[in-house]
Structures are given as structure tokens and as C-alpha cells.
Design goal:
The protein has 737 residues and is α+β, with helices and mostly antiparallel strands. Helix content is 29%, strand content 23%. The protein has 18 helices and 25 strands. The strands form six sheets. It has a seven-stranded mixed sheet with strand order 3-5-1-12-9-10-11, sandwiched between helices. Helix 5 (211-222) packs across helix 6 (247-259), helix 13 runs parallel beside helix 14 and helix 16 crosses helix 17. The longest helix is centred in the last third of the chain and has 26 residues, at 522-547. The radius of gyration is 27 Å and the shape is globular. It starts with 12 loop residues before the first helix and ends with a helix. Bound molecules: pterin cytosine dinucleotide.
Length: 737
């Protein structure tokens, strides 16, 4: 029986649960020097001088400043429309632009000395006016880069407005959705180490989602040829989109060359909170109009994205938000204008969902308001606007080409599984009884784009002398169970048990090419690549078997027999094949339903249920898919209810530890209820779409909507996220007033 589609338990668990995972921090590196970064305490300041004499008076302490660093700057990434004049110096030299920016490097034999020495580095700051929010930045009154002449780092959509956009609309609603700034908080913070070998080549170990891309980024910034750099990502303890190459890893590589010694660095948690790039941070103004019988005719979206101090991927994400603005709905007219600005805050990058949750959160909020305006059940409004099943491939008015879907079935499934009618009846009962605990019900429909920029991934399959197989992928899983998934896919083609297939990722010397793991694309691209490589191996094996005068049996014994004969004939190398797989984006989708209880006397919100229907095409492994949905939903719930990274008006972070940042824990979550659904994509041989980020899309609007729904009888029409006790209580007081 094929392992594909079955609840195969994770191969990697034994290693992790018995403490045998290998992380960058645990690498045994003889004589490695430790790096501690001195980081700016000011959000915007001129660096008037740096006095490192007290630090360097300690034995074996070296301090380097921006003046010593002869490489860089780094970024912005090569994406269309990003302002190139806003590149980040590896170490701030004249001006620091956010709290947490690197202003000096302390090199010591050990970490404790590094912490002490860093505190002795005296930086003389002349404070500059601070731009702490995107709404301030867009006024261009204080500029972060005076030479560029504006704070605008990128634009998307079109600035042109059609005066007639809302013609024919009987009801029009408008509002603002703030998708607040989030911190990625991977369990393993960032970590990097580097050594220059006797042959002059650099080996850089990085806790990364994208080792192959990092290799080009490091080589390019340091002025080296890519083949002079080897990047290795050993086990990676979570990334959530934020673990992309940044100044720290490049500096570690540069220091290994400059000092001629191995060097290493591991971020502390509080350092990670201000220095690892954040996510979301978009403000979305919306107007939606339609007929009184619930048909949506037009939608206008204005996106203002806070890109943080230096434009990285986050400044590009309004393009994805704009592309996905139509969601699962057939909306005839859509207008989007997006603008990304720089502010004196931590740079914004991708964070689980990356630009797409913002689109879903906004359209779902707009639909709830539209439903309230025309007096229709919010579920009915959604149903009346769903893109019909017989229209795929479907091109939206915002320019996306959807591959396949069955949005009404997802909606029906979630309503039936949750018992929507009974829930509404229970809500009515409670409202009539008039106690302090109100019930709220929120429903969201969502669509997601996985493999959003139509990429390629590399796969390789090789039969080993013992008749087992190695599958190599350019992906780099960091919690997504690729060792199990890719082994299942290869097992299905070769007929080998999954225990005999090892999956290798993360070493640019061993794996010829790769793009990495992000955009929930590894299964559809990386999985298809190893599948097609395995098919090629089978074809080659048949030819070889014929040459060697035997038959090929696609099972354990058959491969062992062939491998032995091939090795004896010196032809084992022929049992190896590579495949590079490229495809257009795919569009996973689903529907979520949240039930909350809100205490109207205190504002306290409790999530009682979350029912999730998530369709990621053909499922390779249902256990892992559930785990991925679980993680995504937890992140989505956390954005709706708790997490928010906050700055004061001086650009000082107020939430840079887990005391201030309400990082969600398992104890905060109810058991989630998952309902499977599979609508294959035509874009790859597996029929698979992505699942890694989907949960973040459906859960947030469902939960936010549920809380607002609970308070509808009190005249509350909107509450900004996080819809926590404080914001709920304030909304109730305002409504009463
Ligand atoms: N899968 C499946 N069938 C499908 C699709 C996926 O069985 N049709 C299963 C596979 O077992 C696969 C896993 O789901 O290994 C995830 O697959 P996929 O959706 O292709 O996503 P990626 O492997 O490309 O992972 C990226 C995605 C992203 S973008 C973020 S952010 C994210 C996420 O995955 N960060 C994570 N999940 C995470 N999970 C953990 N534990 N840690 C993170 O940092």
C-alpha cells in the first residue's frame, strides 16, 4: 500500500524527542570567537561618537564599528518597485534608524565576557525627530533618508480612482482594518557561525529557511563568488517566514574572513524581539458596495504598509494583499492602491501568511459590515457572492488566476460541522435571558496563494548501495516535517518503505540548487520535484536491470538486488536522477467558524470553539496537515485576541519581552476542530496545494468577527485587533456613552 495520503507518523520525531537534533548553537566549533552586537537604544539618532576603550581594556576583547566594516550595504531584496536608496548598512555608521539596529560589534572568547564588554561600549547619540508610525511617515515631514526625498519605499496597485466605481450600489460601507504588527517568536532564535577553510572557502551555518538564497546574499554582499561560500542550515527550530538572511548572518561571515578565526553568534530572546524582522503592520481602508439583496458590486482598498526602518520583503507585500483582495468572491469592480513607507521601527518582513491574511481580514470585516447594513445574515451575504464552481480557472478583478476550488462546499461543511443554526438559537436564548456572558459567532471564508511567485524547486533521488534511497531537496523545512513527507512521496514511486529513504536538505555543497521554504510551496514544488526525479530513477533502473539481465521489482528486496548487481558492475551511479519543477501559484482555501463568550461586565473574551475547514488539494499526510493547520490557527487566533507589537511615540518598543508581548501558549487555546476537504490542483502531479500558512488566514477574521457579533446588541460595530479584554471593555464604554 502506498504511504501517500496516510497518517504516517513523523520520522524526525525520534531524533527531536531524544535530544538528537543539531542546531547551529550546538555545533562543536573549536576556538570559535563569540560575537555580541551593541544595538541602538534610540529609534532615530545621529551617532556622534563611539568610545570602546573601557570594553577593549578587558582582556581579549575587540570592538568594531561601522567605520571598520568595508562591505555592504545589504538589500532591499531584488523585487520590483522597492526604493533602492534605502539600503541598510551592516553596522549603522552615521545614523541609527530603529531601536535594535547594530551600532557596534564586540568580539570575545566567550559569551559572558561579550555581554559585559558590550555594556562598556559608550555610544554618543544625538536624537533626531522620530517617525514611529506609517500614518506619520506618509506625510513626509521627517525623512529617514533625506537623500531619497520621501519615506515611500514602494507602491502597488494603481493611484487612479474611478469616480463611477460604486455606481448602482444601494448600500455602501467603509471602515479601516488595522492588521497589527506581530513578532514571529521562533522557539529557536537566530543563530549563525562561520569559518574560513584552508582553501579560502567560507562555511556559514545559519538557522535559515533559505540556505541556497543565503549563499548568494552572503557572497554578493561580501564580494565573493557563490562557489566560495557554503551555507549549511542544520535543524531549524521554527522560522515563520521571518528567518531570512539579514545583516547579522552576513556580519558573522565577514568576521570569520576578517579575523581568520571561527566566529559564532546566537540571538537572545529580547534581542530577537527587536532585531528579528516583524510581520503584518498594515492599515487598510476599505469601501464596499452592493445591492440590498446582498450582491457585492464594487470594492476599494487603500493599503498603507509600515515597512520599518529599511525596506525588506514586508514593503513588497501590499502587492500580494492587492492581488488577493477579491478573496473567494466574484466582485466585478475592484480598485486597490498600496503604499509602503519607512518608519523608525524594526523592519517588516513576511510572517506566516505574509500579505494574504491582511487581504482576508479586510474583506471579511467589510462583508460583516455590509451584512449589518442591509440586515442580512453574514453567512448568506458570503454565500451569494462566492465564485461558482464551474468558472475555474477563474480570473479575479484584482488579477489573480485561481486554479480550482469549491468554496460553497467549504462553507457548508464548516456550518454543518459547527451546528450553525443551533449556535444562533443558543445566542438568541442568551440574549433573551440577559446574563453577562454573551455568545458570539464569527464565520470567515478565505483563499490563500501558495507558491505566490511561481517558483522552481530542485529535487534529486539516488539509490544507495544497500538498496535504500536518498532524496535531496532545495527546500529547507524548519518544522514542516519534510523528512516524512518527501520520504512518503518517494516511497510511493519506488515502492521502498519510508524507513529506507533519507531526506537531505540544507547544505549548499550537497544539494546543487534550491529556493527554500516559504510561501507554503515546498510540497507542491519540492515534493513534485522529488517525485519526478524518483520516476526518472525507475526508468533508468529498468534499463539498467535489462542490461544486467534481471527484472526490476519495485520493493525493498528488488532494489537491494538491483543495487548489489549495479554496484558489482560499477554502474550504481546510473541510479540517480534530478528534476527541477516549476509551476504557477495554487490557491488553497477554506472556511472557519469561531464561537466566543464575552463577559460584558469585564470585557473578558474566551474562545470556546474554532472549527476549521482547510482545503490544500490532495493531502500527502493528514497528521502533518492537521499539525500545520493547528499552528496556523493558533497564530491566527493570537493575532485576533492577544499579540501586538507596540511602540511609543518615541519609537521605543513597549513589548520587547514575553512579559509585555502576549505570546500565545497552548494553554490559551481550546481544542480546535478540523474538517478535511480535498480539491486537487491541476498544476502539479501530486494535486497538492500549500497548507503551512492557511490557518492564519481563516482564523483571525472568524475570531474578530465572533467578538464583535457578541456585542452587536450593545451597538458595537467594530473593535480593532487584538480584541482583548481592554479593547472590548473600551468599545463597550464608548457604545454606552
Ligand atoms: N502537506 C500535505 N499535503 C499537502 C500540503 C502539505 O501533507 N497538500 C504537509 C506536508 O507534510 C508538508 C507540510 O504539510 O511537509 C507543509 O507543507 P507546505 O504547505 O508545502 O509548506 P512548506 O513546507 O513550504 O512550509 C512553509 C510554511 C510557511 S510559509 C510558514 S511561515 C510556516 C509553515 O510552513 N512556518 C512554520 N509551517 C511552520 N511550521 C512550523 N512548525 N514552524 C514554522 O516556522
Amino acid at each position: 500500500m502506498s504511504a501517500l495520503g496516510n497518517r504516517v507518523l513523523r520520522k524526525e520525531d525520534t531524533r527531536f524527542l531524544t535530544g538528537k537534533g543539531l542546531y547551529v548553537e550546538n555545533l562543536p566549533l573549536e576556538d570559535a570567537l563569540n560575537v555580541t552586537f551593541v544595538r541602538s537604544l534610540f529609534a532615530h539618532a545621529r551617532i556622534a561618537g563611539i568610545d570602546a576603550s573601557a570594553a577593549t581594556a578587558l582582556p581579549n576583547v575587540q570592538v568594531l564599528t561601522g567605520a571598520d566594516v568595508d562591505v555592504g550595504p545589504f538589500g532591499p531584496p531584488p523585487l520590483p518597485g522597492l526604493e533602492r536608496g534605502m539600503a541598510r548598512p551592516l553596522v549603522a555608521k552615521d545614523v541609527a534608524r530603529f531601536v535594535g539596529e547594530i551600532v557596534a560589534i564586540v568580539v570575545t572568547p566567550d559569551r559572558t565576557t561579550g555581554v559585559d564588554a558590550a555594556e562598556l561600549v559608550m555610544v554618543d547619540y544625538d536624537p533626531l525627530p522620530v517617525v514611529a508610525s506609517a500614518t506619520e511617515a506618509v506625510k513626509d515631514e521627517t525623512l529617514l533618508f533625506p537623500d531619497v526625498g520621501t519615506n515611500v519605499a514602494g507602491r502597488s496597485g494603481s493611484p487612479e480612482h474611478d469616480e463611477k466605481l460604486f455606481d448602482g450600489c444601494e448600500a455602501v460601507v467603509s471602515g479601516t482594518l488595522v492588521s497589527q504588527r506581530m513578532a514571529a517568536c521562533p522557539l529557536e532564535p537566530r543563530s549563525a557561525a562561520a569559518v574560513r577553510g584552508a582553501d579560502g572557502r567560507l562555511t556559514v551555518w545559519v538557522s535559515s529557511q533559505t540556505p541556497h538564497q543565503d549563499r548568494f546574499g552572503i557572497a554578493g554582499t561580501l564580494g565573493l563568488e557563490p562557489d566560495q561560500v557554503r551555507v549549511v542550515s542544520p535543524d531549524v527550530g521554527g522560522g515563520f517566514g521571518a528567518k531570512q538572511l539579514s545583516t547579522e548572518e552576513i556580519l558573522i561571515a565577514w568576521l570569520a574572513m576578517r579575523l581568520g578565526r571561527p566566529v559564532r553568534w546566537t540571538e537572545t530572546r529580547s534581542e530577537s524581539m527587536v532585531a528579528l524582522h516583524h510581520g503584518r503592520a498594515q492599515k487598510l481602508d476599505f469601501t464596499l458596495g452592493g445591492t440590498r439583496d446582498g450582491k457585492v458590486l464594487a470594492y476599494r482598498l487603500g493599503i498603507l504598509a509600515d515597512g520599518g526602518a529599511y525596506p525588506v520583503l514586508g514593503s513588497f507585500l501590499p502587492h500580494l494583499t492587492a492581488l488577493m483582495s477579491s478573496a473567494v468572491y466574484a466582485i466585478p469592480r475592484i480598485e486597490v492602491e498600496g503604499c509602503s513607507v519607512v518608519t523608525n521601527t524594526t523592519p517588516i518582513t513576511s510572517f506566516r501568511g505574509a500579505g494574504r491574511p491582511e487581504a482576508t481580514q479586510t474583506i471579511e470585516r467589510a462583508l460583516d459590515m455590509f451584512a449589518a447594513e442591509i440586515g442580512m445574515d453574514p453567512v448568506e451575504v458570503r454565500r451569494r457572492n462566492l465564485i461558482p464552481n464551474d468558472t475555474f480557472p477563474y480570473k479575479t478583478a484584482s488579477g489573480a488566476m485561481y486554479d480550482s476550488g469549491d468554496y460553497e462546499r467549504a462553507l457548508d461543511l464548516v456550518l454543518d460541522s459547527a451546528g450553525y443554526d443551533e449556535l444562533r438559537a443558543e445566542q438568541r436564548r442568551r440574549r433573551e435571558q440577559g446574563g453577562p456572558l454573551e455568545l458570539g459567532i464569527g464565520v470567515s471564508c478565505y483563499i490563500e496563494i501558495s507558491n505566490p511567485v511561481a517558483e522552481t524547486e530542485y529535487g534529486e533521488v539516488e539509490i544507495t548501495a544497500d538498496g535504500g534511497a536518498i532524496a535531496r531537496s532545495g527546500s529547507r523545512g524548519h518544522g514542516q516535517s519534510h523528512e516524512t513527507t518527501f520520504a512518503q512521496i518517494v516511497s510511493d514511486r519506488l515502492g521502498l518503505p519510508i524507513e529506507k529513504i533519507s531526506v537531505h536538505e540544507g547544505d549548499t555543497d550537497e544539494i546543487a540548487k534550491g529556493t527554500g521554504t516559504y510561501g507554503s510551496k515546498s510540497t507542491q514544488l519540492g515534493g513534485s520535484a522529488v517525485r519526478l526525479a524518483a520516476d526518472a530513477v525507475v526508468e533508468q533502473a529498468k534499463t539498467l536491470a535489462a542490461d544486467l539481465g534481471c527484472d526490476l521489482e519495485l520493493d525493498d528486496a528488488g532494489w537491494a538486488d538491483l543495487a548489489e548487481r549495479a554496484a558489482a558492475a560499477g554502474r550504481l551511479g546510473e541510479l540517480k536522477a534530478v528534476h527541477e519543477f516549476q509551476s504557477p501559484p495554487t490557491f488553497p482555501f477554506g472556511a472557519h467558524l469561531a464561537v466566543v463568550e464575552v463577559d460584558v461586565e469585564t470585557g473578558r473574551v474566551e474562545l470556546k470553539r474554532l472549527v476549521a475547514v482547510d482545503d490544500c488539494g490532495t493531502i500527502v499526510n493528514p497528521v502533518i496537515v492537521e499539525g500545520q493547520v493547528h499552528g496556523g490557527v493558533a497564530t491566527g487566533v493570537a493575532q485576533a485576541l492577544w499579540e501586538s507589537f507596540v511602540y511609543d511615540e518615541d519609537g521605543t518598543p513597549l513589548t520587547s519581552t514575553f512579559v509585555g508581548y502576549a505570546f500565545a501558549s497552548a494553554a490559551d487555546m481550546p481544542p480546535f476542530e478540523f474538517v478535511e476537504m480535498e480539491t486537487p490542483t491541476p498544476h502539479n502531479p501530486l494535486g497538492a496545494k500549500g497548507i503551512g500558512e492557511s490557518g492564519t488566514m481563516g482564523a483571525t477574521p472568524a475570531v474578530q468577527s465572533a467578538v464583535i457579533d457578541a456585542l452587536a446588541p450593545y451597538g458595537v460595530r467594530h473593535i480593532d485587533m487584538p480584541v482583548n479584554g481592554e479593547n472590548v471593555w473600551r468599545a463597550l464604554q464608548e457604545a454606552k456613552a
